[in-house]
Amino acid sequence: MAKLRIGIIGAGCRGIFSVGALFSTDFKERAEVVALADVNRTRAEAGREFLRIDADIHDDPLALVSRKDVDAVVVTSLDCLHEQHCLAAFKHGKHVFVDKPLAITGEGCLRILAARRKAGTMLYMGFNLRHDVVLARLKEMAGKGKFGDILSVHAIEHYDGGRTYMSRWNRLKKYSGGLFIHKGSHDFDIINWLMAPARPVRVSCFANVSSFKAERLPFTPRKGIRPGPTCTRCSYRDVCPDKASSEDMARGWPAAMKDSYLKMWNGTAAKADGYQKDLCMYLSDKDTHDQGIALVEYDNGATAAHAEYFATSLNNRRFMIEGSLGHVEADLHESTIEFRPRWSSERASYKLTRPEGDHGGADTVMCGEFLDCVRNGRTPRATGADGAWSVAIGQACELARAEQRVVKISEVLDIKSLLLKSGV
């Protein structure tokens, strides 16, 4: 069987080091990356070198999607460009693998779903958490009725890498839609997955920039010498414990990956598009939060809460379920699930083994499933409709935060239209 010919739009870490690397190594017998598209040619060339492929490079994504020798398009561009790139790919009849989020608005998601339906091709949502061994087992147990009716889900994320969000594009809503969309879409999707068939109806949200602001600089500036504007150029780099230049971020990486990463974000690359990914996280302009809590109500009366903490030394996700038959806790860092039956002192504990690979092996499983879905017409574990529900919660959260009120999901997503346009 011929290899699936893939084009990647967005030559960043996700497109190159994760998805692109898997299609070029683990799945090289079934797939081939034949083209890359990025407005920054220096970055794309460094990515191609890392992948060790003979792929064409396009400055314009439209040139990539119009190629007849491209069967499927991987969209790993900026969140705000997902809609544009998905629509272009479907217009040319391509299968699409899109990294989360599907778009940055509910309306954008609906336009993508309509385009997919017209094209008749595959839309695969890159929700790797659905392929995490702990969460997959949790979903299996819930599906078998182990916990009874799910009454509430609490999802908590502590992310030590979140500090760099304030140094790069993620810090601005115009690019990401807000962190409850960019990052929270993962967690809201898992909550929706566990809650199904219940659907979210309204949200409330509280979130702020609490740590990464000027008055919390971790050193005292000297008179007349301003910090920043980037870690690379900062006069206080030697004393700042939070410096996050490209050299700092790549420290300890495998040599080949580190070398390519530094080429992708060196001075030459920055001159091409002006993008700096090591702005001072305390002094950078930003309108996203570094800690926040969202509350969600579902149409069956169940509730959910999701908390995000980006100024922390921890790196973990935990999920807690309150069911009519008991309480369960899942810890992704420890790869454990503990179930406590209601009105009982008994405990059932599970320690799971993770496969190798990024995101606890989930990326490998996800990319393999994408190939299977395209080849065999299988329904993806996460569809475009799932992506739309997740974005809708995140968008409603950002609106609730901005306007300090409860927001209905129907304000940001035409649910009737979603049901008409949804599908694989």
How would you sum up this structure, described in words?
The structure is a single chain. The longest helix has 20 residues. The chain has 15 helices and 15 strands. With 424 residues, the chain is of the alpha/beta class. Helix 1 runs parallel beside helix 2 and helix 5 packs antiparallel against helix 14. Strands 14-13-12-11-7-10-9-8-15 form a nine-stranded mixed sheet, covered by helices on one side. Strands 3-2-1-4-5-6 form a six-stranded parallel sheet, with helices on both faces. The protein has three domains: 125 residues, Rossmann fold, CATH 3.40.50.720; 185 residues, Dihydrodipicolinate Reductase, domain 2, CATH 3.30.360.10; 59 residues, no CATH class. The protein is 34% helix and 21% strand. The two termini are 23 Å apart.
Kindly report how far apart the N and C termini lie.
23 Å
Number of folding domains? 3
CATH superfamily of the largest domain: Dihydrodipicolinate Reductase, domain 2
The top-level CATH class of the largest domain is: Alpha Beta
Structure class: alpha/beta
Give the integer mean of the pLDDT values: 95
CA-atom Rg in angstroms: 22 Å
CATH topology of the largest domain: Dihydrodipicolinate Reductase, domain 2
Count of strand segments: 15
The best one-word shape is: globular
Helix residue percentage = 25-40%
Name the beta content range.
15-25%
SSE order, one letter for each helix or strand: EHEHEHEHEHEHEHHHEHHHEEEEEEHHEH
How many helical elements? 15
Which blocks of ≥5 consecutive residues have pLDDT under 50?
none
Looking at the overall shape, the CATH architecture of the largest domain is 2-Layer Sandwich
